[in-house]
Amino acid sequence: MTAPLYLSDLALASCLGLDRAAHLAALLADAPPGRFTPWPGGRTLVGALPAPLPPLPAALAGFDCRNNRLLWQLAGQILPALTGAAARFGPDRVAVVIGTSTGGIAEGEAALAAYLAEGRWPAGYHYRQQELGSGAEMLARGLGLAGPALAVATACSSGGKAFAAARRLIRLGLADAALVGGADTLCAMTIAGFSALEAVSATACRPFSRDRDGITIGEGGALFLLGPDPAPVALLGIGESSDAYHVSAPDPSGRGAALAMRRALDDAGLDPAAIGYLNLHGTATRLNDAMEGRAVATLFDPPPPCGSTKGLTGHTLGAAGAIEAGLAWLTLHPDWNPGRLLPLHRWDGAADPDIPPLDLVGPGRTLAAGAAVMSSSFAFGGSNCALILGEGR
């Protein structure tokens, strides 16, 4: 039997705020959905971070970009835990695994615009700033960690699949603990790409609503310390699948999504009835929500209490799996949520009759004693991931 792994600390940032308290308050309060603002020159809203991010330390200036500034800010939130892990296991035994899909693309966009206007690249710009792996390397160097450092880039499942990669490193004996999570920041390429797919909404997204019309893109990130030391929240199971149905559209049957969830349950040794809350991927696109509803109906009878938190944070793309695992962590943690309140599902209340009925969470619902939480992430190309978190010790 493999040794259990625990999520002993959490850093969190999104349009809701730059700390855990701001997220918990929004998660449980019966408040209007989203803190979204217009994207310049566009016809959509975005969930931008509510405060500026300071530059990286001088020693890390070669890595400077918005994504890496966010990762550095997040690492600072859990620095004592990271320092303690390095001291306990040794710096070479702590891995860094980061899920992302944008890297430093915004800096590349600005540099290209300057080049086209002036005929030369801006001083200090280097393409390494937008490499997907630069965030993991930056954190390892800045924190003095010498274990494996890598990035996972599987579009919108990146932040979830980072946990699978980190756990594999630990189980293979290549690390004893891992700094794991994800981060993605806003850039014009992402907005333009999803706009070209006609997948963005002009208003705050409404997951699973009858009149939903697309996603609201956000930015943010989450970092955890994953390791063997007992903590109140445990990583119980992970399930992955790849249905490769289409480059951008999900398999309408939901088979691949259901398989990932089934594998997570099997990995955790749990029956579907053990899931007390399901954090849905819930992007508010016509195709994703319909597919996901069918996948849930395939696996759960009746469906557990569930909801999408993207009505609060927006769809943070490669960071979504990590941020939503962070929201699951807050839901389970006895110090942060002693009343065991479940996250509210923000929508307009008008159910889509073409989606199998879901038990979408309203005010005052609580997590049953001993119940686990599942969080799902589904990506372009049919890259699927489900995480199960539960009570630790």
User: Order of strands across the biggest sheet?
Assistant: 5-4-6-8-1-9-14-13-10-11-12
Which CATH class applies here? Answer: Alpha Beta
Look at the structure and name the CATH superfamily: Thiolase/Chalcone synthase
Mean pLDDT: 94
Structural class: alpha/beta
Percent of residues in helices: 25-40%
- Rg from Cα: 20 Å
Shape: globular
**Distance N terminus to C terminus?**
18 Å
Order of helices and strands: EHEEHHEHHEHEHEEEHEHEHHEEE
- How much of the sequence lies in strands comes to 15-25%
Specify the number of helices: 11
Main sheet specs: 11 strands, mixed
Instruction: Using the coordinates shown, work out and report the CATH topology.
Output: Peroxisomal Thiolase, Chain A, domain 1
What is the number of domains? 1
In total, the number of strands is 14
EC number: 2.3.1.179
Family: Belongs to the thiolase-like superfamily. Beta-ketoacyl-ACP synthases family.
Domain Ketosynthase family 3 (KS3): 1-391
Protein name: Beta-ketoacyl-ACP synthase
Tell me about this structure.
- By secondary structure, this protein is an alpha/beta fold.
- It has a single domain (5-391), classed as Thiolase/Chalcone synthase (Peroxisomal Thiolase, Chain A, domain 1, 3-Layer(aba) Sandwich), CATH 3.40.47.10.
- It has helices at 20-28, 66-77, 79-89, 105-118, 134-143, 158-171, 188-196, 255-268, 286-299, 310-313, 320-332, and strands spanning 5-13, 37-38, 45-47, 94-99, 149-152, 177-184, 217-218, 220-227, 233-242, 275-279, 305-307, 359-360, 372-379, 383-391.
- An eleven-stranded mixed β-sheet has the order 5-4-6-8-1-9-14-13-10-11-12, sandwiched between helices. The chain has a three-stranded mixed β-sheet with strand order 2-3-7, with no helix packed on it.
- Helix 6 (158-171) crosses helix 11 and helix 8 (255-268) packs across helix 9 (286-299).
- The longest helix is centred in the first third of the chain and has 14 residues, at 105-118.
- The two termini are 18 Å apart.
